[in-house]
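TODO from last week: model Putative manganese efflux pump MntP.
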Amino acid sequence: MSVAFIGEFFSLLFMAIALGMDAFSVGLGMGMQALRLKRIFFIGVTVGISHIAMPFLGIVIGKFISTRMEGFAVLGGGLLLFGLGVQMVLNSFNRDGKQIMKPVGIGLMLFAFSVSLDSFSVGLSLGLSGVKTFLALMLFGLASMFMTWTGLLAGKKARGLLGVYSELLGGSILCGFGLKIIFG
């Protein structure tokens, strides 16, 4: 394995964990509901699949844009990541009035879509930078699935304190990656 591949793998792994922090924090709150282990398993798989589909769309669109706009596309991708990180950090302070939805049917689809929407933006910026698509998608899907399961299970035992800090950490990591792309 080359040093470049190892570096890209760990960058994508940290990014996948950062994206999964959102699912973890929302899973903490949702885990405080009375959920059976079968339901927790199904929620995690659904979120994982959603974290594969959304960045895939972003990567495809990002690759299309990058062939047309070269240097501006890389700068735009970095700014997008940074902006997404800032949004996650700001959202970590705004916890008033969040309604916990039921994780079944359309509620589960909306939940999976809402926690994976940020991965579309990350996929867009990754498509602009020419990342290894399959590796990124698998890491995003697996990390978000495990982070969702962890959040749901921890939510059965704990209260929401960790959720705020996990989203704050995830947003900070995305800001760092955005700045690395812009200035790196």
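Done. The chain has five helices and no strands.
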